[in-house]
Amino acid sequence: MAAATRLISRLTLVTGGGSGIGRAVCQRLASEGASVVVADISEESANETLGILRSDLKGQGHMAAVVDVSSKESITKLVTNIQTRYFQPPSVCVNAAGITQDDFLLSMTEEQFDRVIQVNLKGSFLVTQAVAQALVACGAPKGSIVTVGSIVGKVGNIGQVNYAASKAGVEGLTRTAAKELSRFGIRCNCVLPGFISTPMTDKVPEKVITKMKSLVPMGRMGESAEVADVCAFLASDDSRYITGASIEVTGGLFMG
Ligand code: NAP
Asked: Which GO MF terms are attached to this record (predicted)?
């Protein structure tokens, strides 16, 4: 099916949809015909994304929603609101909400460690569980859950012991979910970005960015849209025989 229409009549949920990679995913899914629920902890940024989504394709209706992915209560409310509005759960979910709180292992506080695990790892668990439960309960024939991990979950990164652990965790979570949910027609995959220009990496000092770029075989940072393209592929039936996989989007950084 042509990429331009392959998501028509699919209801999709994107966490972290207010910024960076999540916003680019919302744009890409909408451009392929999906209805998109833009979920973010910031109402303002979720609404900003909502305002730039294509909405002229068959049956499209988007919404913005506030959610804190680290809170089960907040996610339950979100999934209920979605089902009230659309009379169905999302059959595509992209977990893109994520945070960093960097520090060296020797000085990282317990709070810094816990918060990053709560948002990145527990958040992915809670959203994946809630969406899968809703899909199974209504007997939906298929679903695709995509979680944005990171290449640093595989190779580690100085100053990111909490973040690297959370991102290694989402890969294990995803592979397990893939094994358990295959019999319900739900596929679960990860996308592992390398260094992508977003508000998250805007915080990284220029010196470090220059060094990182020199390590990337393709010689540049990636764009959010380049990660979004892979998320859209995994969301669509073009990847119908792919589950439990992690696809690196790194310009070759840290390849085997
Ligand atoms: P970003 O621009 O900071 O976007 C992340 C979004 O998630 C923000 O809108 C953020 O809101 C939201 N968020 C934070 N905590 C949340 C919570 N508890 N519940 C709901 N939403 C929450 O970062 P990004 O670079 O696009 O990152 C997107 C994903 O890609 C993350 O999982 C990140 O770890 C991953 N990733 C990024 C890179 C990269 O190089 N950029 C590389 C590898 C992986 P606030 O801004 O209000 O906090």
From this structure: estradiol 17-beta-dehydrogenase [NAD(P)+] activity; quinone binding; testosterone dehydrogenase (NAD+) activity
Count the neighbouring beta carbons within 10 Å of the beta carbon of residue 58. 8
Question: Do the beta carbons of residue 14 and residue 131 sit within 8 Å?
Answer: no
Looking at residue 160, the DSSP 8-state letter turns out to be B
- All structural domains of the chain, each given as residue ranges with its CATH number in brackets, are 11-249 (3.40.50.720)
* Residue 34, H or E segment: none
Atom 23 (ligand 1) nearest CA: 200
Mind listing the pLDDT tens digit of every residue in the chain (256 residues)?
556 799 999 999 999 999 999 999 999 999 999 999 999 999 999 999 999 999 999 999 999 999 999 999 999 999 999 999 999 999 999 999 999 999 999 999 999 999 999 999 999 999 999 999 999 999 999 999 999 999 999 999 999 999 999 999 999 999 999 999 999 999 999 999 999 999 998 888 999 999 999 999 999 999 999 999 999 999 999 999 999 999 999 999 999 7
Query: To test the ligand 1 pocket, which listed residue (28, 38, 40, 43) has its Cβ within 8 A of the most ligand atoms?
Result: 40
**Angle, vertex CA 165, rays to CA 160 and CA 169, nearest 5:** 150
132 CA to centre of ligand 1 in angstroms: 22
